[in-house]
Design goal:
Blueprint: E1 8-11, E2 16-22, E3 32-38, E4 48-49, E5 53-60, E6 63-67, E7 70-74, E8 79-82, E9 88-91, E10 99-106, H1 111-123, H2 135-145, E11 147-148, H3 154-170, H4 173-176
Antiparallel strand pairs: 1-2, 2-3, 3-10, 4-11, 5-8, 5-10, 6-7, 6-9
Helix pairs in contact: 1-2, 2-3
């Protein structure tokens, strides 16, 4: 029996809802397109990806995007594309209104699965108050999502989290995450 995944997922700690408009399966891996509603004060920490770009397009409200060392406040119709290997984050500076925007991830890679795992763990109460999962889950998420934290060379992060992800898989931890995504879908 094939699991039908919801088109919309919510992260209770970050304060956003993501709707998958086009998945990797639907675009044959070319891209993933999501629409995000980010609540006041919501957002993520600085990070970067080595194998895909993210193009942000604001539909409603104001989205703040830190791209390298510069912060941009994007309004409806504004866009910015963050290429691979550039440190970035996005956030809603407003205390009053949500922001609605779209993000195109190109190529799709494993972006959908990574989001589904992270949001699923948070929704199930399997993270700390900041949304950080257990180290075994985190290692799998970072490896699958090809995401890195600034300040530590990617080779070192890849090595450390690669070893931890390998141990997690030997322990069977990855199978706990299948309920959040279809392993064959990315």
């Amino acid at each position: 029996m094939q699991t039908i995944l919801p088109k919309t997922i919510t992260h209770p700690l970050i304060g956003d809802t993501v709707t998958f408009l086009k998945t990797a399966v639907e675009t044959n891996g070319a891209y993933t397109l999501v629409e995000v509603v980010l609540l006041p004060g919501g957002g993520n920490d600085a990070h970067y990806h080595v194998n895909y770009s993210e193009a942000f397009e604001v539909l409603e409200g104001t989205l703040s995007v830190q791209y390298g060392k510069t912060e941009y406040d994007l309004n409806p119709g504004d866009t910015v594309t963050v290429p691979p290997k550039v440190v970035h984050r996005f956030f809603n500076r407003s205390n009053e209104r949500p922001v609605r925007f779209r993000v195109t991830i190109q190529p799709a890679r494993h972006f959908e699965a990574t989001l589904r795992i992270a949001y699923g763990l948070a929704a199930d109460g399997k993270t700390n108050k900041k949304g950080m999962p257990h180290i075994w889950h985190l290692a799998i998420i970072l490896q699958k999502g090809e995401s890195y934290l600034p300040g530590l060379p990617p080779a070192i992060q890849k090595g450390i989290f690669g070893i931890l992800a390998r141990i997690a898989r030997i322990k069977g931890v990855h199978r706990e995450l299948y309920k959040y995504y279809k392993p064959d879908a990315g």
